[in-house]
């Protein structure tokens, strides 16, 4: 009994230690209650609330994936829709989680690119790994077989309706020495197995350790912009569109 | 005799008019006005829920595009059946 336990432990340890790359499936969980907790400055029409709530429910059926070697990672989402789902609402859910906007992280350069198509062009939104001011804590919990530590951070979303503080909680495992996580949340001393980004939780569903090293291809083309520049373009586009609507 | 004939003509005209009025259909209006309004409502909500400007813009576009497709389909079905 004791020998078999040691053998299993050795196998798990060896697969993690000698792995050259990993493939992680994350399942998504939406906190629908968070929509009710928000106190908007102006009342949101019931029609919009209904669509947002329906989209939130659909988030729970989504999965996203991370593939990484020791220095580079790619994070992307599935594009699978059930036939009985309203495509408009499903697309809303995809936009909420950034399902069709892959992220590529490079630890050597410290740069994260998010690829997105907007206004008839392809953009690569550039971010830095150091943009998140992580606070590491000693709080820990088990996720699967892995002991994880809690880290927290905040960021702000500034839009034409105001400033919104977003809270991030990451649970990372130092025993998995890949410093990546969902979206642009990287740079912790271990793989993030669970991440709460405001209203959405990304939870590790399955992890595969591969002995072979893999190449993470870069994004081939796109206009490189900062997040601020991209948001400014979106604001201008929205203003133009709203002015056009007023003419009719 | 002439008067009776005139009255008869009027009665016949009125009865045919009343009979036909039930068959006259008012054409449905098919346009995209409601799509613009719906997209504006979605954008408004997205911004106030704290989504980014680009996400709100994309949500508005998504809502508008699907609404236009739906309106086109409804219009096509109307003209096919009438």
What are the defining features of this structure?
heterodimer; A: 248 residues; alpha+beta; 12-stranded mixed sheet; 5 helices; 12 strands; 27% helix; B: 82 residues; mainly alpha; 3 helices; 79% helix; 0% strand
List the helices and strands and how they pair.
The complex is a heterodimer of chains A (248) and B (82).
Chain A: H1 2-17, E1 21-30, H2 33-37, H3 46-59, E2 63-68, E3 72-77, H4 87-97, E4 103-106, E5 111-118, E6 121-128, E7 135-143, E8 146-159, E9 162-173, E10 191-197, E11 200-210, E12 223-226, H5 227-247
Parallel strand pairs in A: 6-12
Antiparallel strand pairs in A: 1-2, 1-11, 2-3, 3-4, 4-5, 5-6, 7-8, 8-9, 9-10, 10-11
Helix pairs in contact in A: 3-4
Chain B: H1 2-21, H2 33-48, H3 53-81
Helix pairs in contact in B: 2-3
Q: What does this 3D model show about the protein?
A:
The complex is a heterodimer of chains A (248) and B (82). In chain A, helix 3 (46-59) packs across helix 4. Chain A has five helices and twelve strands. By secondary structure, chain A is α+β, with helices and mostly antiparallel strands. The longest helix of chain A has 21 residues, at 227-247. Chain A has one domain (2-247). Residues 9-13 of chain A have low confidence and may be disordered. Chain A has a twelve-stranded mixed sheet with strand order 7-8-9-10-11-1-2-3-4-5-6-12. In chain A, a hairpin with a 2-residue loop joins strand 10 (191-197) and strand 11 (200-210). The termini of chain A are far apart. Chain B is built from three helices and no strands. Chain B has a domain at 30-82. In chain B, helix 2 (33-48) runs antiparallel to helix 3 (53-81). Chain B has 82 residues and is mostly helical. Chain B starts with a helix and ends with a helix. Chain B is rod-shaped and about 85 Å long. The model of chain B has no long low-confidence stretch (mean pLDDT 79). The A-B interface holds A 35, 38, 40-42, 44-45, 47-49, 51-52, 87-88, 91-92, 95-96, 116, 118, 157, 159-162, 164, 166, 198, 230-231, 233-235, 237-238, 241-242, 245, 248 and B 33, 36, 38, 40-60, 62-63, 66-67.
């Amino acid at each position: 009994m004791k020998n078999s336990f040691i053998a299993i432990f050795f196998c798990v340890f060896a697969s993690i230690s000698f792995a050259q790359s990993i493939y992680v499936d994350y399942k998504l969980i939406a906190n629908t209650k968070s929509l009710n907790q928000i106190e908007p400055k102006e009342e949101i029409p019931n029609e919009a609330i209904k669509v947002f709530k329906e989209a939130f429910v659909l988030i729970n059926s989504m999965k996203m994936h991370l593939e990484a070697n020791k220095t580079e990672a790619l994070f992307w989402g599935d594009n699978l829709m059930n036939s009985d789902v309203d495509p408009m609402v499903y697309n809303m859910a995809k936009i909420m989680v950034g399902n069709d906007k892959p992220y590529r992280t490079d630890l050597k350069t410290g740069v994260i690119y998010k690829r997105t198509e907007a206004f008839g062009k392809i953009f690569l939104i550039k971010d830095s790994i150091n943009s998140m001011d992580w606070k590491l804590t000693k709080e820990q919990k088990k996720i699967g077989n892995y002991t994880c530590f809690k880290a927290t951070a905040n960021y702000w979303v500034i839009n034409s309706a105001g400033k919104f503080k977003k809270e991030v909680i990451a649970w990372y495992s130092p025993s998995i020495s890949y410093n990546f996580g969902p979206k642009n949340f990287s740079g912790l001393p271990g793989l993030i197995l669970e991440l709460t980004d405001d209203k959405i939780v990304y939870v590790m569903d399955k992890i595969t350790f591969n002995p072979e090293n893999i190449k993470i291809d870069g994004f081939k083309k796109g206009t490189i912009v900062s997040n601020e520049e991209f948001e400014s373009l979106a604001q201008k586009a929205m203003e133009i569109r709203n002015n056009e609507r007023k003419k009719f | 005799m002439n008067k009776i004939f005139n009255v008869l003509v009027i009665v016949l005209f009125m009865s045919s008019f009343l009979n036909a009025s039930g068959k006259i259909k008012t054409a449905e209006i098919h346009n995209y006005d409601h799509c613009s309004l719906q997209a504006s409502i979605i954008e408004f909500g997205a911004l106030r829920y704290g989504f980014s400007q680009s996400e709100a813009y994309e949500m508005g576009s998504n809502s508008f595009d699907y609404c236009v497709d739906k309106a086109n389909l409804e219009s096509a079905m109307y003209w096919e059946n009438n």
